[in-house]
Every structure is written in C-alpha cells, then in structure tokens.
Amino acid sequence: MIRERAESGVRVLILLAIGTMAGAAAFTHVHDLTVAHGQPDWIGWANAVAVELMAIYLGLEIRARRRTGRPVGLVGVLLIAFALLSLAAQVAEAEPSVWGWVVAAVPSLAFLALVKVVLSSTPAAAPPAPEPDQPQDDWYDEPQPVEPAPPAPVMPPASAAVLPPIGVVQHNRPQVVGIIR
Is the pTM of this model over 0.70? Predict the structure, then answer.
C-alpha cells in the first residue's frame, strides 16, 4: 500500500515536471512566433495560453467523455489540431536543420505522449450506484388476497389497452408500469 502510494506520487511528480517544462517551452515558442510575425507581446502570450491550455482542456474533456460513455471524435480531432499547431510553432522557431526541428519538437511530442498515457489508463472504477427505490423485502413474503376481477370486456378501448385489468393493482404496494420484476 505504501509502495503503491509512493510510486503513484513519483509518477504524478514526473508528469507535472514534464508537463511544466513542455508547457513552458511550447508557450515560449508560440509566443515568440506570434511576436515575430508582427503581433504585440500580449497577443503572443494570449495565443500561447489559448493553444496550450486548449490542448490540455481537450485532453481532460476526452477523459471525462469516456467516463460517461459520450462520443469523443470531434474533441479528439480538436486535440490533435491544437497539438499540431503547437508542434508547428516549435518547429518554425527551430534552427533550420533536421536536428533543430527534432529538438524543437520534443516538448510537443512529450506532451502528446503524456496525454496518450494518461488518457489510455483506465480510471478507478467507481462503486456501483445503489438502485433507486428498491422494493422492501417484506412486500414479496406472502401474496396479498385480491378480489376476483370482473370479466374483462372483449375489446377494450385503445386508451385502456396499456392499463392493467381492474382488480390486479394492489392498493397497498407501489406500482411501476412497464417493469416486470
């Protein structure tokens, strides 16, 4: 138990360290590229925040949607688009050589790898939610006497076709229409 907590803590620290460093490099590259192309300094930082935090948000949104069984297609496409935008900014700021591009791409690639690892891990299973309004056990201990039903009409009206025949409903127990137990 202690070993698992220590390993988990170390994993979180590594995740935070890599995420922080990759984010700082990516923020800087997006900012510098924006400023180099004629935008004011504050817009450079606004672009950096928008690109990098949007990618983080989308990663978290994918995880939340998977937990609830909702589709993740569009959110996944947006995540890839923002990650590629960050990668493009980093490569554009690099020395124009293969090694310059590889070294500049490391923060975005590290971020993508972390997102993939975090999103592919299965979240801890939540305890099953109790079923609402479960009947009490004593409701089924012994059947209640029911008065005999009068003869049912040969052809009931269409509106009455979904109702139980007269006399079947027990007035001392709640009824749920359409559920057979």
Answer: no
| Rounded CA separation 62/23 (Å) | 19
Q: Which residues contact 82 (CB under 8 A, 6 or more apart)?
A: 51, 54, 55, 58
pLDDT digits (tens, 9 = 90+) for 59-94: 889 888 988 999 989 998 998 898 888 888 888 888
The count of other CB atoms within 10 Å of the CB of residue 27 is 21
- The domains of the chain are located at 2-120
Distances (CA, A) of 11 to 44, 50, 108, 114, 136: 32, 27, 19, 11, 47
Residue where the block lists tokens 């924006």:
34
- What contacts 24+ positions apart, CB below 8 Å, involve 112-118? 112/83, 114/15, 114/18, 114/19, 114/22, 115/55, 115/59, 115/79, 115/83, 118/15, 118/59, 118/63
Q: How far apart are CA 126 and CA 136, in angstroms?
A: 25
Residue 57 corresponds to which tokens in the numbers above?
């948000």
8 A C-beta contact, residue 99 and residue 34: no
Name the residue with tokens 């690109």: 51
Q: What are phi and psi of 30, to 5 degrees?
A: -65, -45
